[in-house]
Design a protein that fits this description.
Largest sheet: 6 strands, parallel
Helix content: 40-55%
Distance between the termini: 63 Å
Keywords: NAD, Oxidoreductase
Organism: Maribacter cobaltidurans
Structural class: alpha/beta
EC number: 1.1.1.22
CATH architecture of the largest domain: 3-Layer(aba) Sandwich
Pfam family, one: UDPG_MGDP_dh
Shape: globular
CATH class of the largest domain: Alpha Beta
Radius of gyration: 24 Å
Bound molecules: nicotinamide-adenine-dinucleotide, uridine-5'-diphosphate-glucuronic acid
GO molecular function: NAD binding; UDP-glucose 6-dehydrogenase activity
Number of domains: 2
Number of helices: 18
CATH superfamily of the largest domain: NAD(P)-binding Rossmann-like Domain
Strand order of the largest sheet: 3-2-1-4-5-6
Strand content: 5-15%
Oligomer: single chain
CATH topology of the largest domain: Rossmann fold
């Protein structure tokens, strides 16, 4: 096995960008080139002003500042980077299929397949190909099939190395990963490839945290990890609805059960519902795979996690409508937040989109403030739903940059992302600016109930009566 001195990563997105930045930063002896077909995205990664990087992630710009131009490069020359690298990561998007067989559930692997074909076309020397994207179990087989039929004698080892970073904490998650998973063949060449990848991570992570498995376990573990995490959120959200009926308090319940070391305290925050590009997509994919093997009960079991999440988003919007005397038509409702969680500008599958859409169906006038999400992105998210015309979306929803001003003459404010800055707002001033009775709907449980009620708000916190 040749020494790894050059790495190429295809896909400069939320995973490719941060992951490769950290690898480059921790491995100064390796040249890392991140490539993408999206020219704008690459131009943004190369921006001299590090505040204009294509993604916002705490700690990212500091790492880019140290490594970019030294051993970290962003380029659109995909073929050159593939040709030169001994190890190629595939980190492209794997969205849910929107057409044909498996529409709405299966993963769309066309981008991954295109990468494999491109590698097959360009490679002149043996290479290790690493699946970084989240893929259905047994995808490596398809990639291997494409790569094994080039007829040019080049030998490829395929590894699965799923990524477990969460957005908003990506850099910390990468620097202090709980574990790194490397799946590959148990042949001598497969083992050597796994060790070569392990060597890279061992530059900053203890060896015990680097787990080696077979390819299929690695691919499936990634889907299962996301399914378990999402299941915890849906479980606690289901109980939040019960708390609101019974005077029990969801925070007290999370604390009480989280103290059980077998359950643990993390991922027990009730919310407006989980979002993000992966939880729903990966569970749908798991459901699809289970169903395709005839495992109906398994598929139904996991599908319930998504059904519960949809219920929670709908329940929150319905609660707003009910509280505002069963009509929000012509009423100004402010959404604080649009991102699917704090500390990211990513809005994919954000609960905010669905809540806004439900309120707009009732002809509410929505005003959105998010500290990191652009107006263009917000409209794109709504237009994508195709619930109404782009013109109607722009009439019914406005995006603003001043959160205080947004509250003027509002009937209600819904907190849908847990940005820290919302906690430190002058809520007394906001109360004065709003129409009375002034309603706050806290879908993230970040404000103090007693304080808000003392100010005079009609304050609703998810999971509390
Ligand atoms: P993304 O959409 O942000 O980035 C993917 C990039 O790949 C895009 O910039 C796109 O232009 C590029 N691309 C697509 N086809 C290409 C091709 N043929 N050649 C070159 N570039 C190409 O996606 P992401 O969020 O980075 O996710 C990538 C994968 O990682 C997905 O499978 C996802 O499930 C998984 N994942 C994501 C996260 C996350 O937090 N976002 C975490 C873990 C795993
Ligand atoms: C998630 C996983 O945490 C990562 O390990 C995984 O790599 C990634 O998906 C992926 O495969 O894409 P991410 O979606 O970035 O990461 O963010 P999370 O912190 O997991 O939050 C997901 C959603 O659940 C957010 O909308 C968040 O607000 C919500 N959530 C999370 C809750 O509502 N309550 C909680 O207690 C935790």
């Amino acid at each position: 096995m040749k020494k790894i001195t050059k790495i190429c990563c295809i896909g400069a997105g939320y995973v490719g960008g941060p992951t490769m930045s950290v690898i480059a930063n921790k491995c100064p002896h390796i040249a890392v080139t991140v490539v993408d077909i999206n020219e704008d995205r690459i131009a943004q990664w190369n921006t001299p002003n590090l505040d204009n990087l294509p993604i916002y992630e705490p700690g990212l710009k500091e790492i880019i500042r140290e490594s970019r131009g030294k051993n970290l490069f962003f380029s659109t020359d995909v073929d050159k980077a593939i040709d030169e690298a001994q190890m190629i990561f595939i980190s492209v998007n794997t969205p849910t299929k929107t057409y044909g067989k498996g529409k709405g559930q299966a993963a769309d692997l066309k981008f991954v397949e295109l990468c494999a074909r491109n590698i097959a076309k360009v490679a002149k020397e043996d290479k290790i190909v690493v699946e970084k994207s989240t893929l259905p179990v047994r995808t490596a087989e398809a990639i291997k099939n494409i790569l094994d039929h080039t007829g040019n004698g080049v030998v490829f080892e395929i590894l699965s190395n799923p990524e477990f970073l969460a957005e908003g904490t990506a850099i910390d998650d990468l620097l202090n990963a709980d574990r790194v998973l490397i799946g590959g063949d148990d042949t001598p060449a497969g083992k050597a490839a796994k060790n070569a990848l392990s060597d890279i991570y061992e530059n900053w992570l203890p060896k015990e945290r680097i787990l080696q498995t077979n390819v299929w376990s690695s691919e499936l573990s990634k889907l299962v990890a996301n399914a378990f995490l999402a299941q915890r959120v849906s479980s606690i959200n289901s109980i939040s609805a019960l708390c609101e009926k019974t005077d029990a308090n969801i925070a007290e319940i999370s604390r009480a059960i989280g103290f059980d070391s077998r359950i643990g305290p993390k991922f027990l925050n009730a919310s407006v519902g989980f979002g993000g590009s992966c939880f729903q997509k990966d569970i749908l994919n798991l459901v699809y795979i289970a169903r395709s093997f005839g495992l109906k009960e398994v598929a139904d079991y996991w599908e319930q996690v998504i059904i519960m999440n949809d219920y929670q988003k709908r329940r929150f919007a319905d609660h707003i409508i009910q509280s505002l005397y069963n009509t929000v038509s012509g009423k100004k409702i402010v959404l604080y937040g649009w991102a699917f969680k704090k500390d990211t500008n990513d809005t994919r599958e954000s609960a905010a989109i669905h809540i806004a859409d439900a309120l707009m169906d009732e002809r509410a006038e929505i005003v959105v403030y998010d500290p990191k999400v652009s107006e263009e992105r917000i409209y794109a998210d709504l237009d994508y739903l195709e619930t109404r015309t782009p013109d109607e979306n722009r009439t019914l929803l406005k995006v603003v940059s001043n959160p205080m001003e947004a509250s003027r003459e509002a009937h209600g404010i819904a907190v849908v992302t847990e940005w820290d800055e919302f906690k430190s707002y002058d809520w007394t001033k906001i109360y004065e600016l709003m129409l009375k009775p002034a309603f706050i709907f806290d879908g993230r449980r970040i404000l103090d109930t007693q304080n808000m009620r003392q100010i005079g708000f009609n304050y609703y916190k998810i999971g509390e009566a």
